[in-house]
Amino acid sequence: MHEADPTSQSNYLQIATKHITFDWTVDFDNKVITGTATHEFIAKIDEVSEVIFDTSYLHIEGVKVDGDAVQDFRLGPKHEVMGSALHVPLPRTLSAGSSILVEITYRTTANGTALQFLAKEQTQGKTFPFLFSQCQPIHARDLAPVQDTPSVKLTYSASARSVLPVLLSARRISPPSDGPAHDGKIIGKDEVVYTYDQPTPIPSYLLAIAAGNLQYRPFQVPDGKQWKSGVWSEPELMDSSFWEFSRDTASFLAAAENLAGPYRFGVYDLLVLPPSFPYGGMENPCLTFVTPTLLAGDRSLTDVVIHELTHSWFGNGVTHAHASHFWLNEGWTTYVERVLLQIIHSPAHRGLSSVIGYKGLLDALAFFEDKPKYQKLVIDFDYGENPDSAFSRVPYDKGANFLLHIERTLGGLEVFLPYVKDYIATYMGHSITTETWKSHLYAYFQKNGSEEQIKALNSIDWDAWLHQSGLHLPVEMEYDLTLANPANALADRWYESRHTTDISKLDFKGSDLDNLDANQRAVFLERLESYNEPLPAGHLFHFDKLYAFSKTLGAEIRFRFYALVLKSQAAMHFVQGAADWVIGADDTGVIKGRMKFCRPVFRVMFKVKPDLAISTFRQAQTQFHPIAQSLIAQDLGLDLAGLRVSG
């Protein structure tokens, strides 16, 4: 069923991890994790004589096989993307189905990309340091020696010693989440052992750890549900975090269960991270990581939670076999997220999300005009090619639109949703390729559908959707524009006024936005940015005087405002403000570490004033997550190796 993973050096097709037991100590003084990873392996073929692990920037101190020390393990040469393969010879040749234990003693190092240790000054409370991980797509090998491919799904258990509370992507065994913080011991001084268990098999990229001055508050869960839910954050953010997420999270999860089937992970908690976290959210099982930029104060951005919890079925449940098929995670999740918006809110909300996503998709396709293979849904990665380089809205929104096209071609949600449930039930717990998905789609409708539906499937241009590049979708999509229309109408009025030279004659006022919510305001700005001719500088100065977008605290609005004005004649007026905002050298005081915001702003700054973009990045480089550092440097044409600062 699998092609070999082009981003792994491990021999997972011969022998694969079933369970890992971690015994870790979090060392904040030296900014490392030390300990052991003990793998239970199952041979998949006969005559297996070695295990090959993926590692990157790990210091390997010793290896045992079935309890006996092995001296002749070796680390292969370092590959720039894939790291160093760890070869462990086995004392006996294994036959298919037999098992063996391999224990590796190791420590992480400062050069790894999976972990970010934050100084206390980078946290909200500014009293204790902080640690968090980001293992997707291929950074788990920087956290532990693993077969770092989503084709291998494993269970894990862990003990983690730390002077600060520790969270993992698993179910807490002890001390209890709802007990005293840090088991009642002195935070920052006393060492506590935290134990966790993840009984549901997951891919290695979902291994996750966070540690800091963290508190927990539970959400109310609907009657009859067996799972628990709550939020973790620093104490300073707890009230705002609880208010933002407590009303909707459990009801969102219940709605997802109605659509997709039972939630399998037992716990669904949110962790609000410090601002250097490079993503909007990360669907770590039992513990979704979220950016603090979601704390909008009006619950306008909580739909990100719908996306992350939907991954419990698409990605965490049914998983892509490797990076070439990443759209099976994100395209499906984005599609179902929008279906849930329709169920929870209205068809108009599904349409508005699609409109916003479509703009992001067009931007991503244009960005990859010189790298057209990254415009494809199924990307034919070269061996050892970095999947982070392809990260964009393409798998999310090209994938979601593809599934929407299939839904409509087959006859709508009434026809499509029963198939979705069957797809989940068939492949839950498995890692699959696009070809496997397509074969099941046909098989389902051959069994449960009609000859007309098979003809409908045959009418789809599969090659264009899956394997072709281009700046547009293969089919022109239509969306419900009920909520987008008022935003578009206001944008059109501004555009039509561009030839009015006397600003005092413009018929706009600050109250224009009163009836537009945050998502509609985003559409308004994106519509203005999409016109071939930018508004004149005088218009944009008046625009900002009325609407004060250059002062708004909402990052979703602010970064779109900069995308608009930095492509206009007013760019030089606003570029310093953009530079200050993105690194937090302004009234916000907070770095914009989420790549959705920082990368586009740095790119557009670079076109206006390259020296400012580069000097701003150099000034704050180490405040960004290592993944973001690498990609921003790439965007700015910098060699990160020459810039990197250890630590």
Proportion of residues in β-strands: 15-25%
Query: Main sheet: which strands, in order across?
Result: 5-4-8-2-1-11-14-13
Q: Please summarize the sheet with the most strands.
A: 8 strands, mixed
**What characteristic shape results from the CA principal axes?**
globular
Low-confidence stretches: none
User: How helical, in percent, are the residues?
Assistant: 25-40%
Q: How confident is the prediction overall: mean pLDDT?
A: 96
N-end to C-end Cα span = 42 Å
Number of strands: 22
Structural class: alpha+beta
Number of helices: 19
What is the chains' assembly state? single chain
Radius of gyration from the alpha-carbon trace, in angstroms? 25 Å
Q: Would you kindly provide a written description of the structure presented here, covering whatever features stand out?
A:
It contains 19 helices and 22 strands. The protein is an alpha+beta fold and 647 residues long. The protein is globular.
